[in-house]
Amino acid sequence: MKGLGTIINTIAVIIGSGIGLFLKNGMKQKMQNILMQACGVAVIFIGIAGTLQGMITIHGGKIETKGTMLLIFSLVIGGFIGQVLDIEKWLDALGEKIKTIAKAKEDNQFVEGFVNTSLIICVGAMAIVGSIQDGLNGDYSMLLAKSILDFVIVLVFASTHGLGVMFSAAAIFVYEGGITLLTVFIGPFLGNTLIENMSFVGAALIFCVGVNIAFGKKFNVGNMLPALLVPGVYELILNLIK
């Protein structure tokens, strides 16, 4: 059934964050800190692996790189557009609204937990490619693997950031579900190159999120999200030239 992967991923986030909330009061601050740092390092390497997978090829026993300029243009142009639109401001505002609805006004980490967790579990190769595979042929195996990873991530995050993490389940449902639904209609027209380019650019953003988790906020990742759209425009221009 197409869309099943999104449902499984959403349920995994809800259950994982629920367990994290349950464990919150039983975990010492030092334990929460080390788990956050460990999670941040894990996310960093997930981002690095995804980026290198899309950029490195081996021909004749020699390592070659590709997509370097695309990555630069994607991040620079995407960051510029995102900063002009101030996407993080809108994400924070959305978090505040959900925080009010959830009656969690005293939870100072609600917005941070919602925004950071939503970025981590939404942006990346597994979410994009997995949703596309689900939409094309109902193959949810990649989203199933991602659900296991997300389960661990949100468990740790919920134990440190509280209730806001659980509401990221809504973000994953809309994001992955939207990609899956869109793919059902336009999937046959998407090329493998475009999918790969969007995936490795997304992995680069995941690296930035990992740095923020492990070392404190260094990147405004929310404002860099338009970078995911640049590969599509890039391929469109190439097709027009051809």
From TrEMBL:
Residue ranges of the TM segments: 6-23, 35-56, 68-87, 108-128, 140-158, 165-186, 198-215
InterPro entries xrefs: DUF554 (IPR007563)
Pfam families listed in its UniProt record: DUF554 (PF04474)
Keyword Transmembrane helix (UniProt): yes
Sorted UniProt keywords: Membrane, Transmembrane, Transmembrane helix
Entry-linked PANTHER family: INNER MEMBRANE PROTEIN (PTHR36111:SF2), INNER MEMBRANE PROTEIN-RELATED (PTHR36111)
Stated name of the protein: DUF554 domain-containing protein
Gene source species: Clostridium muellerianum
